[in-house]
Amino acid sequence: MKFHRHPHTFVGQVYLKVANLERSLEFYQNIIGFQVLTKSAKKAVLTANGTTPLLSIEQPENVIPKKPRTTGLYHFALLLPSRNDLARILRHFIQIRYPLQGASDHLVSEAIYLADPDGNGIEIYSDRPSAAWNWENGEVEMATVPLDAENLLAEGDGEAWTGLPSNTLMGHIHLHVSELQKTEEFYIQGLGFNIVNRYGRQALFISTGGYHHHIGLNTWNGVGAPAPLENSVGLKRFSLVLPNKETRKKVIEQLQKIGAWIKEENDIVLTKDPSGNLIELSV
């Protein structure tokens, strides 16, 4: 979990738009295991430890379903502290018979995939020790092979699932984008991330501090895919936690140099990637 604290830049909180707040709350509490930090008529902030916000869900006015083949969220990924924790939640999904979309071994991690009631993608994963990751020419080796679920469940400690562990983190976010060339410039030259893996010509994985990825970017919804409508369910924005205000100032200057959209108001700094994905730069 060392890759999600100072001095690295990492994803802090994800903000989602949903069609029905109460339906989503039931899912995120009972199926995923979040706690409610704050709640109003149209918005709720969710936490794993009772104090740190990880996910915000909001029901916009005149909300509409997200149209297919647009930019935005592919999935957000919750990082569990241990393989035992992953085994517990997998057993929980099996017991309640919740439909999964996949389960993969990525060499650097093991992951379970599912979606919320609005189709927002979710990955729940645990990392293998970073000393076991294989790096070659500055890129980390990753793959997508079937998860050995029997081995995972057999190695679990058998303890009952009681919700998300308190030290669960927002491990990474994976986005649909409309193209990769300007996107790479924005995230590398602008935000200061490093490329750690190129997946052909269709996806890019980036991080700081030698993590396997804090952000994934892909064009799997098609090159030139449009942004979703403002009142569509899906991603509203996500926050990046920067080490300090000096780093944020440097990032703002880098973004200005490449002509990126930036808005500063009351110590809140927002920017947009070339596909319209909104990012909050926090410290």
Automatic annotation (TrEMBL):
It comes from Bacillus methanolicus (strain MGA3 / ATCC 53907). Residues 10-127, 169-283 form the VOC domain. Signal peptide: none annotated. Pfam families: Glyoxalase. It is an enzyme of class 1 (oxidoreductase). It comes from the Bacteria. One of its GO terms (molecular function) is lactoylglutathione lyase activity. This is Catechol-2,3-dioxygenase. Keywords: Dioxygenase, Metal-binding, Oxidoreductase.
